[in-house]
Amino acid sequence: MLVIGEKINGMFKVVREAVQSKNKQAIQDLAKKQLDAGADVLDVNVGPASADQLKDMSWLIETIREVTLAPLAVDTTKPDVMDKGLSLAGKNCFLNSTTGEEEKLSEFLPIAKKHGAKIIALTIDKAGIPNHAEGRLEIAANIVAKAIELGIDPASLYIDAVILPVNVAQQHAPAVLETIKQTKLLCDPAPKTILGLSNVSQGAPSAQGVSVRPLIDRTFLVMAIASGLDAAIINPLDKDLMDAMITSELLSGKNIYCDSFLQAYRKK
Amino acid sequence: MLVIGEKINGMFKVVREAVQSKNKQAIQDLAKKQLDAGADVLDVNVGPASADQLKDMSWLIETIREVTLAPLAVDTTKPDVMDKGLSLAGKNCFLNSTTGEEEKLSEFLPIAKKHGAKIIALTIDKAGIPNHAEGRLEIAANIVAKAIELGIDPASLYIDAVILPVNVAQQHAPAVLETIKQTKLLCDPAPKTILGLSNVSQGAPSAQGVSVRPLIDRTFLVMAIASGLDAAIINPLDKDLMDAMITSELLSGKNIYCDSFLQAYRKK
Questions:
Q1: Is residue B97 reached through a cis peptide bond, with omega within 30 degrees of 0 on the bond before it?
Q2: Rounded mean pLDDT of B144-163?
Q3: Which CATH number covers residue A175?
Q4: Interchain pair A247, B219: CB under 8 A
Q5: Whether B252 and A225 lie within 8 Å, measured CB to CB
Q6: A23 interfacial to chain B (CB closer than 8 Å)
Q7: Is residue A251 part of a domain?
Q8: What is the DSSP string of chain B?
Q9: Which residues form the domain of B38?
Q10: Is B186 on the interface with A (CB under 8 A)?
Q11: pTM for this predicted structure
Q12: ipTM for the assembly
């Protein structure tokens, strides 16, 4: 499975402060740590506090590029920041993200095409996030159609069925799993599926002093992998989460068994 | 999900010794502990060392019945022991197990019918355990047909697709998950699905001094639940395993969310 490391995001204090003080070391450490832990791609998001997103995104990407050529997922809602970010990030990168709304697709799909970027697309439209798999799949089908219309290979689409916190919207969890299963049936070659994982456990409390968030996260990731998930945006520094992911890939027959399969995956 | 506690089995030393020395307390403790931890049913197996299985099975069941009326899964390959065990165990119990071989079905299905017992049936025939889901489903279909022929409700069948150790037969894990998904399509009402879990991790080693067996067990259980599993024979005293199971049931929408969902399930 494709692991997109989520840690270089201005929502995290350490990143926000590094961007403000132009502390390259902190960002480069986070990049290397995530790659060492098994991330394939690094998400890059300046965060909502940034006063100059174009400048901060450029600085972040240039800073990361000093230590690694790993693919990046340029994570912004602003088309100009996306365009600039993808031009600096280079080949095999990801546009993160567009929704299924017409105007978003019209803005973002051409930017992805221009840079040859893969596309993370959320099953959200003007009415919001549908409650059931059917509605999500309808939006996904529309995204696929738009992409094909623009000459974009649907296999470069990563459909994110948008999980909501289980504590407030429990019925969305099975809907997302069902969407993951059925997205593969939309066209041939099929679009890929992706999950922005940590939203599932937002707001879940501690039980007997221990946060249940990691348990919810890793359990849902394993269920999604059993449903055919191709990629996830996660915290690769969560060792239990990565162990669960590696083991479920093993049990799906996607990695070959060896006695040290947990270590072998990380050294891949 | 239906949890069948696996601990009262003569393969475990503490049970073997308790049977030999007629130590009621040890067996009754194991029964109560498993029920407290969330088990719905208790498996009862005298183990291969028993010199008088009929006598030992009777003693075990009578000993358990002194402290609980919870359903039991009478676990033996001997028809006379099964018949005696089910007659002592009472209503709502399980025959564990028959294979799909003609002579086994002819022996065991009538015993189950006589006692109104649910039936755990393994997808094994004379040729062994098929490598792929198709072969397993063919055996399952044959078991269902035989049961219907004898007037047994297929909803009282629990089909076990027989997981083999991932370290020697890795390709069986996805085959079992696929069988679980498709068993539901065999007839209406559908047979149920069950998993004798711990076999999946037999022989898997320690990694950096920590056994990877519990990780493999709980990851495969969550994948099986995501595939639609109805029941499992597991160790309910493994807290991490039970937490993973409860959380995956929550994310499947089978339990209602509350902040203390882990505790709430166990107190059900």
A1: yes
A2: 97
A3: 3.20.20.20
A4: yes
A5: no
A6: no
A7: no
A8: -EEEE--SBTTSHHHHHHHHHT-HHHHHHHHHHHHHTT-SEEEEB--TT-S-HHHHHHHHHHHHHTT----EEEE-S-HHHHHHHHHHH-TT-EEEEE-S-HHHHHHHHHHHHHHT-EEEEES-BTTBS-SSHHHHHHHHHHHHHHHHHTT--GGGEEEE-----TTT-TTHHHHHHHHHHHHTTSSSSPPEEEEEGGGGGTT--EETTEESHHHHHHHHHHHHHHTT--EEEE-TT-HHHHHHHHHHHHHTTSS---TTHHHHHHT-
A9: 2-210+228-235
A10: no
A11: 0.95
A12: 0.93
Amino acid identity of B21?
A: S
Instruction: Give chain A's domain count.
Output: 1
**How far apart (Å, rounded) are the C-alpha atoms in residues A107 and B151?**
63
Nearest-CB residue to B222 (from A170, A222, A256): A222
Q: Judge whether A264 is closer than 8 Å to chain B, CB to CB.
A: no
Q: Tally A–B CB contacts below 8 A.
A: 107
Query: Residue A266: its pLDDT value, please?
Result: 85
pLDDT digits (tens, 9 = 90+) for A109-138: 999 999 999 999 999 999 999 999 999 999
* Among B176, B216, B219, the residue to mutate for chain A (most A Cβ within 10 A): B219
| Confidence grade of residue A248 (pLDDT, cut at 50, 70, 90) | very high
Residues in A closer than 8 angstroms to B261, CB to CB, are: 212
Q: What is the mean pLDDT of chain B?
A: 96
Per the rule left: phi > 0, alpha: psi between -120 and 50, beta: everything else, A220 is alpha
Q: Which residue of B has its CA nearest to A205?
A: B259
Assess B170–A contact: CB distance below 8 Å, yes or no: yes
User: Residue B169 falls within a domain, yes or no?
Assistant: yes
> Which residue does chain A place closest to B259, by CA atoms?
A205
At a CB cut-off of 8 Å and minimum separation 6, what does B112 contact? Answer: B86, B95, B98, B118, B119, B152, B156
Domain presence at residue A250: no
The whole-angstrom distance between A29's CA and the closest CA on chain B is 25
Is residue B206 situated within a structural domain? yes
